[in-house]
Specification:
485 residues; 7-stranded mixed β-sheet; FAD/NAD(P)-binding domain; Flavocytochrome C3, Chain A, domain 1; 30% helix; alpha/beta
Length: 485
């Protein structure tokens, strides 16, 4: 068996993974990035949202924190949210120094956008809705040029190896082993497990299964955020995301009668449920997003994508409906990205710090990639210097976790764990063939209340006793509700 060594192994080449590797290298560490796709082709490439950061004169980290906590429906881990809000402005500045060109107004100041749940303009974009593309291209180029970073493209991790107490390496799809003093999961989310989704097909929670198989704790898997404005179409454009920023610039949601029925800038869970209720009562498959008064020059990528789908947003309503968009749960970590197993870290959407609570505040997720990516890099480099793995990787027994999912499982997840769910459906889902679907169902069954993105018809009220409580799972164990400081 071929064996190689590295100091920090980063699994995933999205925004969180690339930035973590760059920060580790800047701290003097040696990193290896493992990417299933070529660089600059990760899910982050398609991100339309921006970075939330308190940069305006009338804004502050405290105000950003208040908005984050309000959106999170009583389930936000305040310490994690405070870290994000305090450190996001520095992350934006650092990206600028790395060569990311953010949009500016005619005076040269950052052009700040407004999105749902934010009380002021604080969303930073690069190329409008092409923010993900701009950032990933720049970070990919920097990673490729950095002598301290090795890149393994077109490779998949099949297992995290342990010595019984800590993570000590990874097994790759060619059965080779990469030993590492610190392993950082940056594998993205799981929204493509649902049959209707805004995510690319690969976003099916592979990193969560790797962590669970290794014995690390997962948390909040029942909390999937549904985006309210995903295109409804039969021509390959179904699920195309229309960024929330268009509503920040005046786009309205209209029902079948042409009436506005919701505050478009309310938190996402509220808007998504309002949209779904109108769809259900009308018998139609969508509501209309009216972008006709929005300057198309502000969102050239969105407008072009809609026109390729045969929709002219300057002249007609865009048919939209909710779709699975962002997993707020993931690998449970502390405020430095450390998982419950020593030597293992998680950053970005595959992680769960408790920052997002039960309803993610728009554009906090991209900021999270950089704020917590920097923190994880510091911790991983420090750990690899002072607490190096000394145990031998244990041989793997049994097949590695299989992330592939059938159309039947995807349809069942949408039906029984969509915007609304109940105990009967979740119990059926808990017997599904897919291991992550079963974990999601078990988590949802353990939260006997309705909160944010988790709406149970058999427990329709929010339970104040569950404020600040998180559903945690470890391989082979029952779900446990815990509070995090």
């Amino acid at each position: 068996m071929q064996r190689e060594q590295t100091q920090v192994a980063v699994i995933g080449a999205g925004a969180a993974g690339l930035y973590t590797a760059l920060r580790a290298a800047r701290l003097g560490g040696a990193a290896t990035v493992i990417s299933a796709t070529p660089l600059a082709e990760s899910s982050s490439y398609w991100a339309q949202g921006g970075l939330a950061a308190a940069l305006a004169a009338d804004d502050s980290p405290e105000r950003h924190l208040a908005d984050t906590i309000a959106a999170g429906r009583g389930s936000v881990r305040e310490s994690a949210a405070r870290v994000l809000c305090d450190e996001a402005p520095a992350a934006v500045a650092d990206l600028g120094e790395l060569g990311v060109h953010f949009d500016a107004d005619r005076h040269g100041n950052l052009a700040l956008g407004l999105e749902g749940g934010h009380s002021v303009r604080r969303i930073v974009h690069a190329g409008g809705a092409a923010t993900g593309r701009r950032i990933i291209r720049q970070l990919s180029a920097l990673v490729a040029q950095d002598e301290r970073i090795a890149v393994l493209e077109g490779r998949r991790v099949t297992r995290i190896l342990t010595d019984g107490e800590r993570a000590v390496g990874i097994e790759l799809d060619d059965s080779s082993v990469l030993e590492a003093s610190a392993i950082v999961l940056a594998t993205g989310g799981a929204a493509a497990l649902w049959s209707r989704t805004t995510n690319p097909a690969g976003a099916i929670g592979g990193g969560l299964l790797l962590a669970n198989d290794a014995g690390a704790q997962l948390a909040d898997l029942e909390l999937m955020q549904f985006h309210p404005t995903a295109v409804v179409a039969d021509n390959g454009a179904d699920g195309l995301l229309v960024t929330e920023a268009v509503r920040g610039e005046g786009a309205r949601l209209l029902d079948a009668a042409g009436e506005r029925f919701v505050n478009e800038l309310a938190p996402r869970d509220e808007v998504a449920r309002a949209v779904q209720r109108r769809i259900d009562t009308s018998g139609r498959s969508s509501v209309g997003l009216d972008m006709r008064e929005v300057d198309p020059a502000l969102f050239p990528n969105v407008v072009s994508a809609l026109r390729r789908a045969g929709i002219d947003p300057e002249r007609e309503l865009v048919p939209v409906a909710p779709a699975a968009h962002y997993m707020m749960g993931g690998v449970a970590t502390d405020l430095h990205g450390r998982a419950s197993m020593r030597g293992l870290y998680a950053v970005g959407e595959c992680s769960c710090t408790g920052l997002h609570g039960a309803n993610r505040l728009a554009s906090n997720s991209l900021s999270e990639c950089f704020v917590f990516g920097a923190r994880a890099a510091r911790a991983a480099v420090a750990e690899s210097g002072s607490d190096r793995a000394t145990g031998e990787p244990r041989p793997a027994f049994g097949p590695p976790p299989e992330p592939a999912i059938s159309p039947e499982s995807r349809a069942a997840l949408w039906r029984y764990a969509g915007l609304e769910r109940d105990g009967d459906g979740l119990r059926r889902l808990a017997a599904d063939e897919h291991p992550l679907v079963r974990l999601i169902a078990r988590s949802a069954l353990a939260r006997e209340e309705s909160r944010g993105a988790h709406q149970r018809l058999d427990f329709p009220a929010l339970d104040p006793a569950l404020d600040g409580r998180h559903v945690t799972l470890t391989s082979g164990g029952d779900p446990v509700l815990v509070s995090w400081s």
